[in-house]
Amino acid sequence: MERVSLQRPAWKWQVLSLFLLCGWGWVSGQIHYSVVEESEVGTVVGNVARDLGLKVEELPGRRLRLGSEESLRHFAVRLDSGALVVSQQLDRERLCGAAASCVLSVQVVTENPLQLFRLEVEILDLNDNSPSFPTTHRTLRVAESATVAARFPLESAQDPDVGTNTVGSYWLSPNSHFSLDVKQQQDGKLFPELVLERALDREEQPELQLVLTAVDGGSPARSGTVQITVLVLDVNDNAPTFDRATYKVQVPENTPVGALLLRLNASDPDEGPNGETQYSFGVHTSDLVRRLFTLDPHSGEVRVSGALDFEESHFYEIYVRAHDGGVPEMEGHCVLRVEVEDTNDNPPEVLLTSLLNPVPEDTPPETVVGLFNIRDRDSGANGDVSLEISPDVPFAIRSLQNHFSLVTRDSLDRESTSQYIVELIAQDGGSPALTTTLTLLLNISDVNDNPPHFLQPSYDAFLLENNPPGSLLCTVSASDPDDGDNSRLVYSIESGQVQGAPISSFVHINPDNGNLYAQRTFDFELLQVLPVSVAVRDSGSPPLHANVTVYIFVLDQNDHPPTILHPTSDSDIPAPQRVPLSAPAGYLVTKVTAVDADAGHNAWLSYHLLPQSTDPSLFHVSLYTGEVRTTRALRDTDVATQQLIVQVTDNGDPPLSTTVTITVALEEAALEESYKPRDFLAGAKEKPDLTLYLIIALAAVSTVALATVTVLAARCLRRRGRAAASPCCCCWLSESPSRDFFKHSSPKLQLSSDGTLKYMEVTLRPTDSQSQCYSTCFSPGSDRSDFTFLRPCPPPATLPRATGAFLPATGTLRDPGQVRA
């Protein structure tokens, strides 16, 4: 907790402080103006702008204004000239009463930067009041036995003016018995007294008429008069007398009402009514004293009847009159001086002059955000004030005398703390000490200092092909800790090209909520993965932005039926497959080869011999290879021309199928023909380059397929942990082959034969599982061949289904032998 102690400085420190004020933004006591009371409204007191070194054209931008309510009540500032003018007629007597000096403090505040200037305007007295007596006529009873030089106090005249304009002298009309003597008290007031110069004789002159005139010192002088009638009385020749002419008593200002201050005693040597003394306030006792104190007329006890306040008056003088019951009555006089001692009964005051609220979060340290003063009406140690600021706030206080500024101590961050409660605690040096707390609620305003941030480093979206346009792909989400427009986010897609078309023709994003939609129908066979760069920016000035990549994976659907590659039907009547009647059981008649443009399990094919065939019991079609073989030895009674209807079905849901009709001719002569060598290697010798190309192409296809499946599997495994975080970021992992399967597998080429049918196998063989193979078959009875890079053969039941996509590629090989896969 920062603590600043404020002590009442000696005159040396006041001189030093005057120089420090110049460099700290304060001007205190440097400019002093004076103006005569009763001046007209609009009277120029002084030019503030010129005296403060400000240019007139700067005044609107600096927001020159008066900083306190008291200043605004009496004065105003003209921004067109910088002059300080009177805003209402000033009455010095009303503002300052009878004070010797009437000085008004004026605070002037400017901004950019925030500064406070203190001015002093002295209100000069104008002799606009004449002296006046409480009454216009006074009766004074004086015993004829009064001794020469006896004194008789008279009521003073009152003049609200001060200085030379107040009562300066008294004059008594000429007479034969009395003279005038004027006494001056410590505070400068004049009290007239009649002095008996010649003994009175009631029988000679029972009554005298005198005129007392009070004259002030103004120019021109003003005066007031009172008529005094002196009645000469007979008898009582002893007046009451006090043992002392002046009494002094000291009391604390918190003395309770009713407390006894002093018991006065006046003695009278006369007897009977002439010696009975009564007490009363003298004519010079002010109305304030009569309200604060009571005097018992019989006992002479002086008690407190009102609240005493050291800050209003340090002492009070009570004029006491004691008179007897004689005729005429005799009286004596004394003065009771009551000195008030200060107690700590006034708490410190914290007066806020100006405050910058809210405070921008980019405000640098040591920037002034508030100006305030402190004061304590007590004196001595009771008026010494120390100021503290609440801890754990990025603000501090800087002080000079009673003037303070609130400055930023550290850098501000609205995102961590948007509001501070700052307490300024002022404590005086009394015992017990009094404390005052000023609580400030400072709001921190936002600046655009935080860019948007996506919740994930990247997003994956999975979409089935043949989707309708407008389908929701996923939702990207970003956050911005700023406030207001600085946190209002707008999403967009960065420009780019995909397959020669702008990426905006593929996807669209909602700029408000980050929903990503498909603009078209996707085809897995044309596009498998679409990376989209999504940008987000806030609405600050200048705007900040961020980017993220969304990977859209197009998933295959079973939308392509199998395509028969062999046997081909270039004409309406396909060429028959010739089989010798001597062929044994299991004889390979032909091999049906088909492909499916789909991927994954949608491209797994199975072969079935339909019962609509001529003799389904004579032939058998392999479920996975499509090989057509005899089930038994042929007989002469078998139909010579057999129609085999083979159905090829994929593994989709629902499955799609294609049928092909194979004509098989049972001939005796076909046996020799079928044993004629139609060796693939022989053809390869004639065209060695074609064989090399075949091997390279198959190896390349296998490598691309392996790499694609490995990348997809790795991405899915890496994002499995975030599958539940976002509905659009889950990976399709069900029944996927492990990465080890592809990592420890390698493609191999193998030439196989089965009777007269020769074919090549491309095998992807791991060390501990079943093989996946690509087969190319050469069948007799063909006059040309089409070579095609194919999808993997359907795996056995023990091999898990792979969800990775194998990219198809096709080519054509012309050769006397028929080529099928």
Automatic annotation (TrEMBL):
* Any one of the GO BP annotations: homophilic cell adhesion via plasma membrane adhesion molecules
Q: Does Glycoprotein show up as a keyword for this record?
A: yes
GO CC annotation: what is one? Answer: plasma membrane
State which residue ranges cross the membrane: 690-714
Q: List keywords of the entry alphabetically.
A: Calcium, Cell adhesion, Cell membrane, Glycoprotein, Membrane, Repeat, Signal, Transmembrane, Transmembrane helix
Domain Cadherin residue range list: 27-133, 134-242, 243-350, 359-454, 455-564, 571-679
Looking up CDD domains in the UniProt record yields: Cadherin_repeat
Q: Give the residues annotated as coiled coil.
A: none
Q: Which Gene3D superfamilies does the record match to this protein? A: Cadherins
- One Gene Ontology molecular-function label: calcium ion binding
Domain of life here?
Eukaryota
A family per Pfam = Cadherin
The record gives the membrane topology as:
Single-pass type I membrane protein
Q: Which residues form the signal peptide?
A: 1-29
Subcellular location(s) of the protein: Cell membrane
Q: What is this protein's function per UniProt?
A: Potential calcium-dependent cell-adhesion protein. May be involved in the establishment and maintenance of specific neuronal connections in the brain.
Q: Which PANTHER family match?
A: CADHERIN-87A, PROTOCADHERIN GAMMA-C5
This chain belongs to the protein called Protocadherin gamma subfamily C, 5
Which species does the entry assign this protein to? Answer: Strix occidentalis caurina
Upper taxonomic lineage: Eukaryota, Metazoa, Chordata, Craniata, Vertebrata
